[in-house]
Specification:
single chain; about 220 residues; 4-stranded parallel sheet; 9 helices; 8 strands; globular
């Protein structure tokens, strides 16, 4: 059976569980298997440049040594190891941030990003600039919660709604990207609350991987 491996570069299994639930609608009868895994040696949350460096090395190791998967999704908004992984395998590799950005452009153009921390924003802008997509970003604002808190914190949805509203009303975002895999469980409720498309990057990456393996490209 064709296999899509969704890699959580952090060691927080709650984030992997949220990712697994998020991609469930893409598990089609008779279609490719989508498996979410946790890199147990990774940081508990990818929240700093040092975390990104560690995650990049672990992601690359996983991709190179995985002989069963037909495609990979790197489920971290920093897309750690994406460039190097693509150099080391002929199998398609999708970064969830890059996938979400491309999807957001098709959902109205200018998009907003909800980040976890202030320090995440410059890294996201650098990522956009490297891909020539910075001009599509209406704004990038943090909720200032850790990865773990964004996944299971009691006031996570309240903060997401507040920041999402600012991105929509003040920055002019036509869609919202959730800038952390841990936010996945809030997507539907937040989209209903804001009235504009809310994009979960894990779903975006998995959807692109699904298209790639089904079309054998």
């Amino acid at each position: 059976m064709t296999l899509i491996r969704v890699i959580n570069p952090n060691s927080n299994k709650d984030v992997t569980l949220a990712m697994n639930e998020a991609v469930q609608p893409l598990r089609l009868h008779g279609g490719p298997k989508i498996e979410c895994i946790t890199l147990s040696k990774g940081p508990f949350g990818v929240e700093s440049d040092k975390d990104v460096e560690m995650a990049s090395s672990l992601v690359l190791e996983e991709v190179v040594n995985d002989t069963l998967a037909d495609a990979f999704v790197i489920a971290c908004y920093s897309d750690p190891g994406l460039t190097e992984a693509r150099k080391r395998t002929r199998k398609p590799v999708f970064g969830m941030a890059e996938s979400a950005i491309l999807m957001a452009v098709t959902r109205g153009g200018d998009f907003g990003v909800i980040s976890i921390l202030d320090q995440s924003v410059p890294r996201h802008i650098k990522h956009l600039r490297e891909r020539g997509m910075e001009h599509f970003c209406a704004g990038d604002r943090p909720i200032n919660m850790t990865v773990a808190e964004s996944a299971s914190g009691t006031d996570a949805f309240t903060r997401l709604t507040k920041v999402g509203t600012t991105l929509r009303d003040k920055d002019g975002a036509k869609s919202i990207i959730l800038g952390c895999a841990g936010m996945a469980k809030h997507r539907e409720a937040l989209e209903f609350e804001l009235g504009i498309p809310v994009i979960d990057p894990v779903q975006a990456g998995a959807a692109m991987a699904l298209g790639a393996v089904c079309l054998d490209t």
